[in-house]
Amino acid sequence: MKLVCTKDNLKKGLFAVSRVVGSGNSLAVLNNILLKTDQGRLKLSSTNLEIGVNTWIGGKVEEEGALTVPARLINEYITNLPTDKVTMSVKDTTLSLESENYHTNIRGLSSEDFPLIPQVLDEAYTKIDSEELRKALSETVWASSQNETQPEISGIFMAFEEGKLRLAATDRYRLAERMVVLDQPVSASREAIVPSRTVMELYKILGSSKGMVEIYFSETQVLFKFDETEIISRLIDGNYPDYRQIIPKEFKTEAGLSKDDLTHALKAASLFAPESNNVQISVDKDGVTVNASSAQAGENVTKVSAKVTGEKNTATFNFRYMLDCLNNLAEPKVVFRMINDASPAQIVPEGRDNYLYIVMPIKL
Amino acid sequence: MKLVCTKDNLKKGLFAVSRVVGSGNSLAVLNNILLKTDQGRLKLSSTNLEIGVNTWIGGKVEEEGALTVPARLINEYITNLPTDKVTMSVKDTTLSLESENYHTNIRGLSSEDFPLIPQVLDEAYTKIDSEELRKALSETVWASSQNETQPEISGIFMAFEEGKLRLAATDRYRLAERMVVLDQPVSASREAIVPSRTVMELYKILGSSKGMVEIYFSETQVLFKFDETEIISRLIDGNYPDYRQIIPKEFKTEAGLSKDDLTHALKAASLFAPESNNVQISVDKDGVTVNASSAQAGENVTKVSAKVTGEKNTATFNFRYMLDCLNNLAEPKVVFRMINDASPAQIVPEGRDNYLYIVMPIKL
């Protein structure tokens, strides 16, 4: 292998593929990135056996070839490099990097030992605007279960129906649901559960990418493709819970209020809920009151002005579940809805109907 | 106690005193900050029994009093508070904080249980411009020993002689020395060893402070006073090593080169010195060459252009010791001087003669 490329392109390519690679894998090749010439470009690949990432960068290929090298080492080396261009060449299992005054050999491992990243060959199933998808993921992905014993809710549910994608994430105590308009309506509906880790990687690698994300499916895999990058992941096998039946249709109490005011009030109260995470939220005609108390720390009561309709109401919530939602909404105002101290409450951004968040009160 | 003050003043005061407070002390009052009305202002104090910090903020005192409250809790509470003003009042051992819609009680401990912070009553021994002092500390403090079994070199040496302060820090493998012009010459020379932790706190609390730092001494204590803040610390008992005798007077080789070029070269080499930290530096008429190799990772050689005089020379250094110095110099160019592979080498910023750094080569 021999090729010349710019440092910036190489850095960008390494950024995309490096995040899924570990550094302490007992199978050494899993700590590595595969570099391979591919139709006049350099293809970089990484995998953790659950997620695979491929990306292509431009370069002047002078000789075909391939090698895997430690992800962390080449990443740190290229990040530090002050030069504009890099000449890469492979001899046996050594990668040479030459650029101006910098002469470096990195020991690698044969490309033949690198796990095969599955290919998803079908035509694109659908397309989504990448900024829209990124926003939708930021409003949902954190709500999924961290508990690996419930595999089906440890992923993000994706239901494609005609011109829409419905995203959902839940851990059974709270639920985030987001609708996204597809750029290319689907001909046949489809449901899938994508591992949270895959969705987090997709979110991070998408970064400030503009343009379209193409989605491909096989029986057991999903592939997201944008710019010059592909993320391939296994799907989670199982039935996603029929969560829509628990979304209340009607509420008894509604309060429209400033997201920042509510956030500050919850954070103040959180300091007085050091062990339980429990804060009490009360709504009456004067507004919303947030309070918490602890025998050791003390107590806090904060009034938040709100436009309230309906009955007065009080319930106890995990403040982290409230903040997770508020921290990920862009709107300055939110609507908070309640039924009673044992039924799901709801948060939605004011003036937008493609998102809802449901949170269960804590039974004391 | 009752007083009204601005949130910003309180936040600033808490910042100054909070850094020395732990949160897991078995003696609970050491996790706390002492709040005390003092001649029409609020005095905030903290101590870890080695270092004490006092700071004063303006406020409208309506009733005298004092209480200690958990540092972390009040800090986080005030940092989050979106209001402009805070009314504080004490009843028994509870501090009430009232501001607009926020009503909070924090459980504290009696001010009588708070350790006495020693007073250093003498007149100011000398004065130093605070920006000058901060720069001088940034160039030296990290060079002191982390090894508590050598208490005298775990501190920063300060020698006041007429119109100058000489600062030194060493761990026996490297040495940083900095001269600072005093704003008020001393009438009697004095030497002291100040704990590194004290100097680090001073450095951080100094922040962007302008104006003068006054220095006071007692037999066993030093006090730094600036703006509305005092840091009091014990001194380290012992004799600082007579380090000046090991500073070479003459060198065989001198290379003037770009600080950034040398830094990049050292960082590139560091990736190929994962266990030993050893990098080889060679100087000849063509410039400076930095290289490292490891059986596992590979090898790197970087040429750095330099203006070289004297003999050619090669030695091995701990790259961290080189980078510690380079990372803390503001100048774009440095001068690197060598004798041989067993004698101290030197780094100085080009065009400034109040600083020198000595580093021992590694014997292979």
From TrEMBL, chains A, B:
GO terms for cellular component: cytoplasm; DNA polymerase III complex. Gene3D superfamilies: 3.70.10.10, DNA Polymerase III, subunit A, domain 2. SUPFAM superfamilies: DNA clamp. It is found in: Cytoplasm. One of its GO terms (molecular function) is DNA-directed DNA polymerase activity. Keywords: Cytoplasm, DNA replication, DNA-binding, DNA-directed DNA polymerase, Nucleotidyltransferase, Transferase. One of its GO terms (biological process) is DNA strand elongation involved in DNA replication. The keyword Nucleotidyltransferase applies. InterPro entries: DNA_clamp_sf, DNA_polIII_beta, DNA_polIII_beta_C, DNA_polIII_beta_cen, DNA_polIII_beta_N. Residues 244-362 form the DNA polymerase III beta sliding clamp C-terminal domain. Its main location: cytoplasm. Residues 1-118 form the DNA polymerase III beta sliding clamp N-terminal domain. Residues 128-242 form the DNA polymerase III beta sliding clamp central domain. Confers DNA tethering and processivity to DNA polymerases and other proteins. Acts as a clamp, forming a ring around DNA (a reaction catalyzed by the clamp-loading complex) which diffuses in an ATP-independent manner freely and bidirectionally along dsDNA. Initially characterized for its ability to contact the catalytic subunit of DNA polymerase III (Pol III), a complex, multichain enzyme responsible for most of the replicative synthesis in bacteria; Pol III exhibits 3'-5' exonuclease proofreading activity. Belongs to the beta sliding clamp family. PANTHER family: BETA SLIDING CLAMP, DNA POLYMERASE III SUBUNIT BETA. Forms a ring-shaped head-to-tail homodimer around DNA. This is Beta sliding clamp. It comes from Candidatus Doudnabacteria bacterium RIFCSPHIGHO2_01_FULL_46_24.
